[in-house]
Write a structure and sequence with these properties.
single chain; alpha+beta; Calcium-transporting ATPase, cytoplasmic transduction domain A; 5 domains; six-stranded antiparallel β-sheet; 28 helices; elongated
Length: 740
């Protein structure tokens, strides 16, 4: 069982809670005592549905629903980095101008450094103090101590240079100050925080995109006189009659009371074919009307609609997602105490044993500066940022960089069918003509009838290559009639022709079974739900099957993931026969048809309950909740806005073939992050003994804080150059997933 801190929204097991608080009979758990104190002051504030997350010392990036606050924070970080970087450059420049008074230069550097350290870098110091206060040491502990040591030592050296040993003074007797390194450390860490913070955007946009599926206004039909007036959506009442014009979005849930016609429900069900609606048929908010005018009665409004329930599912799935714990913070939990121990040992050894407290102070500061892990703040964000740019060049839009880290663990790939594995367009897959029927007559009659129809299937029929052969010689159709949900009929050359489903044929007394028997056709090879019959005079002339077009690159993607020990699974809202057809064609053994929104979400969570790491690929509103719950969420660029906003990654142009590139990019980015962390830690660890003075008797030279500051920058350069290698990554080169 997992619990969520109501203040910072951090999710963790209850046994790891640092504090608890009982309010109105409910026990709430907190990741640290400060969150408990805030909650106790105003519980209702943090229990409200729109309460934003407040960052605390335990989670560097708390979940944030308020996009305005996220943007404001990111703007502040970027501004802070620019200020700190400019100040660092100014200090370096003025320190090397020989014509300026040294004392004045030092005071100016002090003032400028104070602006950078306590202005933009103030939150770093605050986090460091909080980590010490709560004994939860992390990366910010060393960062704040490194910045503080450089700054406060320099202030001391500026006013009390006479008390320092000669090794800490230059030839003119002036103290060697470290105001520039203090500002530089702050700038580099702020840059890392900015790059990392960009991942927290988009949660509010996802919810907004779902709500935008519902029109803001509705056309209410006055029952007294039949006139139509536009009213705001929130004024629609249960039982109201609403007029839906062609191509309008359905405003609320209800049912048809007048009219008939197809409605596009693909965003909710995944069905590529619009559903024919007649009087009494159910309508759902957010779906799109077809070519005809409908009148509906409102049955569910506001938060009771199906779309509103989907929004709540998305919110719940997002909030129950575990935050990614950075590897740098894990290692820092052991690294920070070790560094502090080394610094204190060096201080007391030089002070108590060597009786040189000035040397002891220099060694203490040098160790902290040498070990300051500013490169750790860049190790993951910089590699991910370069990886995001590489992905963009390859048609992969990565909105949440943390997904690249999670992707290395993926062992299950759940795929929607319509719009993901298929192109969301219909195609006539096969045609069977009765051997006693002239094919030319069959096609001319078929095209003549479909040429009068507005049904989406008609477009697929007219797209057949045979249409061009007979387009100029189509017969006239008299008394054309469209029967919603059944088919069409008309008189061609004085013969009544019917075109439609099997049920329509049976109503028309057409011998369907005789057609299959006489033509020796194995009916099991044809998906019954997608068959359309053309008949006349009680006899079937021919039958054709309509289905989605499978994307040409889908087979290659499925084969590649199977080779990499990732299980592909289809979860679709489409009918069983259509889903089975796609699964069999692509060689996918596990598939689940006719799933609703909640069903898809439960399929994802069921896999996760068994410890599986799930990547979900979808394109519709019915995929939004499953995308939000998945460990890695991927949307097709041709999909709905709701899917795009809820997904961490988007495959531009709806090309599922980019999935292979995405996984190869993830492997490369994760490898680079690990190498960056190793370089940063190994480099700093090698400097620590030198800074502590372990080799002083051998070299007769002290590794001063100035040398530590300069050397510390070397780890940042290593991380930068190693991360930039990702820019030249070849994502077309296939590779097998390596076991970790």
């Amino acid at each position: 069982m997992m619990v969520t801190d109501p203040v910072c929204k951090m999710t963790f097991p209850p046994e790891r809670a640092a504090a608890t608080y009982e309010y109105k009979g409910t026990i709430y758990y907190f990741c640290n005592p400060n969150c408990k104190v805030k909650f106790a002051q105003d519980p209702e504030l943090y229990l409200s549905s729109n309460a934003p997350a407040e960052p605390c010392c335990c989670c560097s990036e708390a979940f944030e629903d308020d996009d305005v606050k996220v943007e404001k924070r990111l703007h502040g970080l970027l501004t802070g980095f620019i200020i700190a970087a400019v100040i660092t450059v100014l200090i370096m420049v003025i320190e090397h101008l020989p014509e300026l008074d040294r004392r004045g230069v030092a005071c100016l550097a002090w003032g400028l450094s104070s602006i950078a350290v306590f202005g933009p870098g103030g939150f770093l110091l605050l986090r460091g103090v909080k980590s010490l206060k709560n004994f939860k040491l992390n990366m910010f502990t060393l960062i704040s101590m490194g910045i503080g040591s450089a700054y406060f030592y320099s202030v001391y050296a500026l006013f009390f240079a006479g008390t320092l040993p000669a090794s800490l003074l230059d030839d003119a007797g002036n103290a060697k100050l470290h105001f520039a390194p203090a500002a530089m450390i702050a700038a580099l860490v702020i840059l890392g925080q900015y790059l990392e913070g960009r991942a927290s955007r988009g949660a509010g946009r996802a919810i907004k995109s779902l709500m935008e599926l519902v029109p803001p206004m509705a056309r209410k039909v006055k029952k007294c006189c039949g006139s139509v007036v536009e009213i705001p959506l929130n004024e629609v009442q249960l039982g109201d009659w609403l007029k839906i014009l062609p191509h309008d979005k359905i405003p609320v849930d209800g049912f048809v009371v007048e009219g008939h016609g197809p409605v596009d429900e693909s965003m909710l069900t995944g069905e590529a074919v619009p559903v024919e609606k007649t009087v009494g048929s159910k309508l759902s908010a957010g779906t799109v009307n077809g070519e005809f005018v409908l009148t509906m009665q409102a049955e569910k409004v506001g938060s009771d609609t199906l779309l509103a329930h989907i929004v709540e599912l998305v919110k719940t799935a997002r909030k129950t997602k575990l935050p990614v714990q950075k590897l740098a913070d894990k290692v820092s939990a052991f690294f920070v105490p070790a560094v502090l121990a080394v610094a204190l040992i060096a201080f007391f050894c030089w002070g108590l044993i060597a009786r040189d407290w000035s040397m002891a102070l220099g060694a203490f500061i040098a160790v902290l500066l040498a070990a300051c892990p500013c490169a750790l703040g860049l190790a993951a964000p910089l590699a991910v940022t370069v990886g995001v740019g590489t992905g963009a060049r390859n048609g992969i839009l990565i909105k949440d960089p943390s997904a690249l880290e999670s992707m290395k663990k993926v062992d299950t790939l759940m795929l929607d069918k319509t719009g993901t594995l298929t192109e969301n367009t219909l195609q006539v897959r096969c045609v069977c003509v009765d051997h006693n029927t002239d094919k030319k007559q069959f096609y001319r009659t078929l095209f003549a009838l479909e040429n009068n129809s507005r049904h989406p299937q008609a477009k697929a029929v007219m797209a057949m290559k045979e249409f061009k052969l007979y387009a100029d010689s189509l017969p006239e159709v008299e008394d054309f009639t469209s029967l919603p949900g059944q088919g069409v009929c008309g008189i061609v050359n004085d013969v009544r022709i019917v075109l439609g489903s099997k049920d329509f044929m049976l109503n028309e007394k057409v011998d369907v079974d005789g057609f299959f028997a006489q033509n020796d056709i194995d009916r099991s090879l044809l998906p019954a739900n997608s068959l359309t019959y053309l008949a006349a005079l009680g006899r079937v002339w021919g039958v054709f099957a309509v289905s989605d077009i499978i994307r040409p690159e889908a087979q290659q993607v499925v084969n590649e993931f199977k080779q990499n020990a990732v299980d592909p699974v289809i979860i679709s809202g489409d009918n069983a026969e259509q889903v089975k057809l796609v699964a069999d064609t692509l060689g996918i053994e596990e598939y689940y048809p006719a799933l609703k929104v909640q069903d898809k979400l439960e399929k994802v969570r069921a896999r996760q309950a068994f410890g599986r790491c799930v990547a979900m690929v979808g394109d519709g509103v019915n995929d939004a909740a499953a995308l939000a719950a998945a460990d890695v969420s991927i949307a097709m660029g041709s999909g709905s806005d709701a899917a795009l906003e809820n997904a961490q990654i988007t495959l531009l142009a709806g090309n599922i073939g980019k999935l292979g590139k995405l996984f190869r990019l993830s492997a490369a980015v994760n490898g680079t992050i690990k190498l960056n962390l190793m370089l940063a830690f190994v480099y700093n660890i090698m400097l620590i003994p030198l800074a502590a003075g372990a080799f002083y008797s051998l070299l007769n030279w002290q590794f001063t804080p100035v040398c530590s500051s300069i050397a510390m920058s070397g780890s940042c350069l290593l991380v930068v150059f190693n991360s930039l290698r990702l820019w030249h990554l070849d994502l077309d080169k296939k590779q097998k997933k390596t076991a970790e």
